[in-house]
Amino acid sequence: MKILAFETSAKAASVALLEEGKLLGSVYQNTGLTHSQTLMVMAQDLLSQLSLTPADVDILAVAAGPGSFTGVRIGVAAAKGFAWGREIPCCVVSTLAAMAAGLGVWQGYVCPVMDARRSQVYNALFHVSHGNCRRIREDRAISLADLGQELKNLEEPIFLVGDGSILCYNTLLETLPGLVLPPEHRMHQRAVGVALLAACSDAGKGKESEEGVATVLPSESNEVTVKVLKRATFEHELVSNGKVTAGAMADLRFETTGVVAHIYVKNGAPVRKGQKLAEL
Predict the structure, then answer these.
(1) Residue from 135, 190, 126 nearest 156 by CA
(2) What is the pTM of this model?
C-alpha cells in the first residue's frame, strides 16, 4: 500500500512516499517559496522519478497543524483535492506528532517545538522507550519559560525537533543541560513522519471497512484515532445543528488543530458544526 504524504506547516515543504513501511523516496525544499508553487510540483516529480502515477497512490496523508495558517491550508487543500479526485482515504495527523515519529529516537523524550513568536512555541511532549513512542503532553502553545519549568525534572535526554529547536536550545540550555539539538537534516518538519503516522492507522494497515472513507484526526485522549464513515455525494449542504440529508457532507472544525476538514458522514446522522469526529 503506497502512502503519499504532504508536509507544509512551516517554511519548509516536503513530500514523501512510503510503501509497507519502506521509504521509496522523499523531496524536501526550504527556500522560502510559497508552498502553492512547490508542493504539487514536488509530488509530481517524485512520482515521476519512481516511475509511478497518481493512480498508484493508495492513501494521501497530510500534516494538519499546528503551524502556519496559510501553509496548513495549502497542504490540506492539496491533500483533499488529490484524495477526492482519486477516491482514496485521506489521513490527517498532528504536525508535532509527525515530527516525533520522523526523528527516530530510540530512548528518551522528544520535544517538538515550532516558533509561535513572542517567546512562545507550539509544543507537545513524547516519551520514547525502545523505539515505542507515547504522548505525554497534548499539542499546545506555551511560553519558553513555562516549558523550561516543565522539562527541568525530566531525567532522560530531551531531543528537540522543529523550526523552534535552535531558539529553545539557546534559551533553555543553561537550566536544561539534558537538551539535545539534532543535526540540520533531522531538525525540521518532514513528510516522512506524516507518512509513518498514516501507516499506523487502520487505513494504512489496509483495514478500511466496506462503508468507505477512513479519516485520521487527534482525539480527546490526544492519540490518533481513525473513524470510518460512509461515502456520500455532494448533492446537499449541511445546515448547522440540523440533520444530514441523503448525500450531505459536513464541515467539522476540530478544536485540537483548528483546521476545517470535510468529512463524509452517515446519511441521516445528526451532526452540528464544532462536533468532534469521535462523537459521530
Answers:
(1) 126
(2) 0.73
SS3 130: coil
Instruction: Say what the alpha-carbon torsion angle 99, 104, 109, 112 is, to the nearest 10 degrees.
Output: -10
Angle at 276 between CA 94 and CA 86, to 5 degrees: 65
With cut-offs at 50, 70 and 90, classify the pLDDT of residue 59. very high
Question: Distances from the Cα of 64 to the Cαs of 6, 68, 97, 121, in angstroms?
Answer: 10, 10, 11, 17
**Per-residue confidence band for 31, with pLDDT thresholds at 50, 70 and 90:** confident
**Strands 158-161 and 179-180: what pairing?**
parallel
Could you give the angle at the alpha carbon of 198 between the alpha carbons of 230 and 89, nearest 5°? 30
**H helix or E strand, kind and range, residue 46:** helix 35-49
Alpha helices, H only, 62-218: 69-86, 95-103, 144-151, 165-172, 184-187, 191-199
pLDDT exceeds 60 at position 236: no
Q: Look at the block and give the residue holding cell 530510540.
A: 106
With beta carbons less than 8 A apart as the criterion, state whether 201 and 216 touch: yes
Residue for grid cell 506524516:
194
